[in-house]
Amino acid sequence: QVQLVESGGGLVQAGDSLTLSCAGLESRFRIYYVGWFRQPPGKEREFVAAIRSGVTTYYTDSVKGRFTMSEDNAKNTVYLQMSSLKPEDTAVYYCALNTEIYANPRSFSGYTYWGQGTQVTVSS
């Protein structure tokens, strides 16, 4: 059973930085994509970033240059470092694991395991 646990959310001001963590990613999952998604208030869940260990990282256009996804394999954890935060970044952020071999990392449907989410609120 896979258990993903996010942490690091909070209330910040526009322009601030915040780092989210997602723990629980054992080494056997490193061949798969790990993604960050977010769900703004009243909106659909949307792709933010994804990483395949040691291979590649993807970002949605709205966060490129501001967000960085990274991993610490020794800690079985991935991170989402967020800087220059904007009010429109306000959302519940989820990490997820996609166990499809030929996965589209940007597609919501391929992700099987999800964390419980962590709230990020950016005030103007």
Walk me through this protein's architecture.
The strands form two sheets. Strands 2, 4, 5, 6, 9, 10 and 11 form a seven-stranded mixed β-sheet that branches. Strands 1-3-8-7 form a four-stranded antiparallel β-sheet, with no helix packed on it. The mean pLDDT is 94. It has strands spanning 5-7, 10-13, 18-23, 33-39, 46-52, 56-59, 67-72, 77-82, 91-98, 111-114, 118-123. It is mainly beta and 124 residues long. Strand 4 (33-39) and strand 5 form a beta hairpin. The termini are far apart.
Concise synopsis of the structure shown:
This protein is mostly beta strands and 124 residues long. The protein is built from no helices and 11 strands. The strands form 2 sheets. Strands 2, 4, 5, 6, 9, 10 and 11 form a 7-stranded mixed β-sheet that branches. A 4-stranded antiparallel β-sheet has the order 1-3-8-7, with no helix packed on it.
Strand and helix layout:
Blueprint (H helix, E strand, L loop, with lengths): L4 E3 L2 E4 L4 E6 L9 E7 L6 E7 L3 E4 L7 E6 L4 E6 L8 E8 L12 E4 L3 E6 L1
Instruction: Report the sheet-strand fraction.
Output: over 45%
Give me the number of helical elements.
Answer: 0
User: What is the global morphology?
Assistant: globular
Write the element-wise H/E pattern from the N-terminal end onward.
EEEEEEEEEEE
Radius of gyration: 13 Å
Uncertain spans, ≥5 residues at pLDDT below 50? none
